[in-house]
Amino acid sequence: MTGQSPNASAAKTRNPKNNAKDTIRAADVEAYLRDHPDFFQDHLPLLDILRLPHPTGGAVSLLESQVALLREKHRAMEQHMGELVERARDNERMGQHLHELAKTLMRAENLDAVLALTQDALRNELGAERVSIRLAHREAADLHALDSSELATFDPLFSRGKAQCGRVPAEMLDVLFDDTEEIGSAILMPLGDDTNRIGVLGLASESADRFQPDMGTYFVTHIGDLLAESIRCHVERTHAAA
To answer: Does 44 map to a domain?
Structure first.
């Protein structure tokens, strides 16, 4: 009778393929590599022989895959940096517009000049298609006047205390603009606060994408503050002269 040698039997027992306890699972390898991210620094030759599936078909080495991934991240970073640079340029331009508007308002001789110069600046320098400035506590015959019922329409805006962008309530647009059915988006800015309502500044566009609800209102807020302060100064000056 032919028997199996003890050595062969022991080797079979030690063979990982025949011993479940010695079987290395994929999860174990993954866990080990996660715990030792620098493993390949000491085993660089492995990078070139490991094969990974590639979206375009076939397989590439781990090293090639990492290079491709780095290139993609580099392109995304370049795009992001380009967007940041463009945004910085836009902010610089807006800052310059604010500076010029402040100087213009300082030169205004009276309140009518303040309103006219502000409207011109918003149209010419900021590209606003429609601009409306309506003020409280004005003579009824004044084109810029808001009567008490019209002013009450903006109660939610003054309670909000900041600019409102995008699709604003139709009743507010009706007070500020003509042909409101052609308006796709707008910005409304309260002038003053809920205890001292000076008026309302409105910018409108036929494009629904021009003014978005999530857009920044930093510069519009500063324009509103400049305008409100200039109006306040001229009103006080007029009352003092009277």
So the answer is: no
CA distance 231 to 84: 35
Quote the domain boundaries for residue 151.
Answer: 109-241
The reply to whether 84 falls in a domain is no
DSSP notation for 24-38: PPHHHHHHHHHH-TT
d(CA 183, CA 205): 6
Residue 64 lies in a domain: no
How far, in Å, are 191, 197, 199, 233 from residue 240 at the CA level? 22, 20, 21, 11
Residue found under tokens 């409101």: 180
Least confident of 11-20, 71-80, 101-110, 124-133: 11-20
Q: What is the CA radius of gyration of the chain?
A: 35
Nearest to 100 by CA among 7, 219, 17: 219
Give which of 198, 235, 241 is closest to 108, Cα–Cα: 235
Q: Which helix (H) or strand (E) holds 187?
A: strand 185-193
Residue 47 has pLDDT above 70, yes or no: no
- The structure tokens listed for 150 are 């019209």
- pLDDT, one tens digit per residue, over 5-17 is 444 444 444 454 4
Task: Record the tokens describing residue 55, joined without a space.
Answer: 């979206």
Q: What is the domain-level CATH number for residue 150?
A: 3.30.450.40
173 belongs to a structural domain: yes
